[in-house]
Design brief:
heterodimer; A: 279 residues; alpha/beta; six-stranded mixed sheet; 11 helices; B: 287 residues; four-stranded antiparallel sheet; 22% strand; binds adenosine-5'-triphosphate; binds magnesium ion
């Protein structure tokens, strides 16, 4: 077993003046170096949970421990140094008046020295392909450009844990792959832990583990293979299946023979071919 | 209502040191009742084009015909209310179009602004909220106390309640859960098919563009790169990859299958359903 970097225990949370709980008895553990995807219907509590890990909300019952620190108002800044978050709406995250100031802001707060800071800002912006916009005001960017800058700001901080709340929802497919590959590389090289809240099933399929939230509670968790076996049940939960699984279903419905439902297009093609076209 | 763009150009912060060219020489036609998808890399000018369709932005060069009106560069345009009523936009960020203290007031604002009586507007709000898959008690809540996907749904409901002739959608499914995304796309398609609405969709989902659009406009660096039917556009993979895009997953899968087969299928399959049927048919032929 690897080292636990996050442990959430029996956490519940209710927004003021709301009858329903946004989170109810949520327990969850995350290992160092793991890529965890969190999926769930709109309003299932994903962003509320994310904001709790970032110390924007505090649990009303239960407790949250991050990198050995139990979240409280006293250590929220220490926790934010360990865990960097990209918000669902990038506009809520911008603080600088130019793209480069915005990325530098967090570094300055952490006391990173000037020349080092410059270099880290540039490297981060390079990684997301935004060096042509250094002096643009972040609010005056296109949707996808805003998301790229928001991601750069967190990459530059080099936290131990990155939490992405639908951080690539407005990127074009290639751009999304590029950004995700960058983060995957940081995970492989530097042991970064990644928590990714996403509605993108292809992305969830690449995670080490998937947690499904439903109406504020953990519905189930497992490997992507385990989760996407559920198919019909997933629809009820507001979810769906990745392309290869869907394609497998459709081919099976058409009467083609398959050994199993596939998560990988190459394997699916090979299977369809061998069982149906080589006799 | 036909919309035609003629050599439209727009620069942000024009005349200041921060001036930035966003679109230039953009011409294309949105025929009444059609479903047009606009695709393109991040920053290619899609949202800028959309904001011209109901004159939130005015061209700095060129002109736009919107129904019987012509919006031309360098002219003062008065009385845009009729256009705003008939062309409804769902913005890329729902936060940019929500502002009232309750969801109900927010949804009613558009219709009442255009002369619909309060009671009727409230009825429209109830209908619209159901259409976007939210419970009726959301109407009493503040739109800013909702989750991202719930806000998105309210923003869509607000535009539907105006009963526009042209539905302009800027990545309307970003932030929706997978089920909601499917339901919402099917709803837009049915409004277009059954009620004759015109749909203009900006999307990063090549799958949605392939499935729903009659016509696709490809944007690249502020210009129209190419227009055509989904079949035209997606049979030319090279021109897509040249501007940072690619074919839908279905077509990638078709290509993988064709590699095994050694020859191409009779036609390009735009949806997974179509491809599964085609593969079944082919197996039948070979047996
Ligand atoms: N308010 C603004 N002020 C200055 N420049 C802007 C503004 N909004 C957009 N731009 C610039 O204009 C260009 C086109 O932006 P636009 O928002 O139309 O792109 P887009 O195709 O919608 O991109 P995305 O897919 O990322 O949403 C971009 O380079 C962007 O940086
Ligand atoms: N500021 C707030 N005040 C009151 N209720 C809120 C607030 N923010 C969220 N909620 C409610 O709490 C529940 C969980 O919201 P949350 O934002 O965590 O959902 P989510 O899973 O992130 O959804 P989405 O996929 O739409 O982003 C929802 O029912 C939402 O309406
Ligand atoms: Mg959320
Ligand atoms: Mg845009």
């Amino acid at each position: 077993m690897g080292e636990m970097v996050i442990s959430i225990q029996d956490v519940s949370f209710q927004y003021p003046d709301q009858t329903a709980f946004a989170l109810q008895d949520v327990s969850l553990r995350v290992q160092r170096g793991e890529w965890l995807a969190i999926v769930g219907h709109n309003g299932s509590g994903k962003s509320t949970l994310a904001k709790m890990l970032n110390g924007l909300h505090y649990p009303q019952t239960g407790q949250v421990t991050i990198g050995g620190l139990t979240l409280s108002e006293d250590n929220v800044w220490a926790i934010r140094e360990k865990l960097g978050m990209v918000f669902q709406n990038p506009d809520n995250q911008f603080v600088g008046t130019t793209v480069q100031d915005d990325v530098a802001f967090g570094l300055e707060n952490n006391g990173v020295e000037q020349t080092k800071m410059k270099e880290r800002v540039l490297t981060a912006l390079q990684k997301v392909g935004m060096t042509a916009f250094l002096n643009q005001e972040p609010h005056h960017l296109s949707g996808g450009q805003k998301q790229r800058v928001a991601i750069a700001s967190v990459i530059a901080l080099r936290p131990d844990i990155i939490l992405l709340d639908e951080a690539t929802s407005m990127l074009d497919p290639l751009g999304r792959d590029e950004v995700m590959d960058t983060i995957r590389e940081l995970k492989e090289k530097e042991g970064l832990t990644v928590i990714s809240i996403t509605h993108d099933l292809e992305e969830a399929a690449k995670a080490d583990r998937v947690v499904v939230l439903n109406e504020g509670s953990v519905y189930t968790e497992g490997t992507p293979q385990e989760i996407f076996q559920m198919d019909q049940e997933l629809l009820q939960l507001g979810l769906g299946v990745p392309f290869s699984v869907r394609m497998s279903q459709l081919l099976a419905d058409e009467g083609l023979l398959l050994t199993q439902r596939h998560f990988n297009e190459e394997e699916l093609v090979r299977d369809v071919w061998t069982l149906n076209f080589t006799k | 209502m036909d919309i035609k763009l003629h050599e439209v150009e727009y620069r942000y912060a024009a005349g200041t040191p921060f001036e930035r060219m966003a679109i230039t020489d953009v011409s294309f036609h949105i025929p009444s009742g059609e479903y047009v998808a606009i695709i393109g890399h991040t920053g290619s000018g899609k949202s800028t084009v959309l904001q011209h369709l109901n004159v939130l932005l005015k061209p700095l060069k060129g002109e736009i015909d919107i129904g019987s009106r012509t919006i031309a560069a360098g002219r003062k345009e008065k009385n845009l209310k009729e256009i705003r009523r008939r062309v409804g936009i769902v913005f890329q960020f729902p936060e940019h179009q929500l502002f009232e203290e309750t969801v109900e007031k927010d949804i009613c604002f558009g219709p009442m602004n255009f002369g619909v009586q309060e009671e009727q507007a409230k009825q429209r709000a109830r209908d619209a909220i159901r259409l976007v898959g939210l419970p009726e008690n959301v109407l009493e809540r503040s739109p800013f106390d909702l989750s991202g996907g719930q806000m998105r749904r309210v923003a869509i409901a607000g535009v539907l309640a105006m009963k526009p002739d042209v539905l302009v959608l800027d990545e309307p499914t970003a932030g929706l859960d997978p089920r909601g995304r499917l339901d919402m796309m099917e709803m837009f398609a049915s409004l277009q098919k059954k009620n004759g609405l015109t749909c203009v969709l900006v999307t990063h989902s090549m799958e949605d563009a392939a499935r729903y659009a009659d016509r696709i406009v490809m944007m690249h660096k502020g210009r129209v790169y190419k227009t055509g039917t989904p079949r035209d556009i997606f049979s030319d993979r090279d021109s897509l990859t040249a501007i940072g895009l690619d074919v839908p997953e279905t077509i990638r899968f078709q290509h993988l299958f064709e590699e095994k087969l050694g020859y191409p299928l009779k036609h390009l399959c735009l949806t997974p359903e179509e491809l599964a049927q085609e593969i079944r048919r082919l197996r039948g032929d070979r047996q």
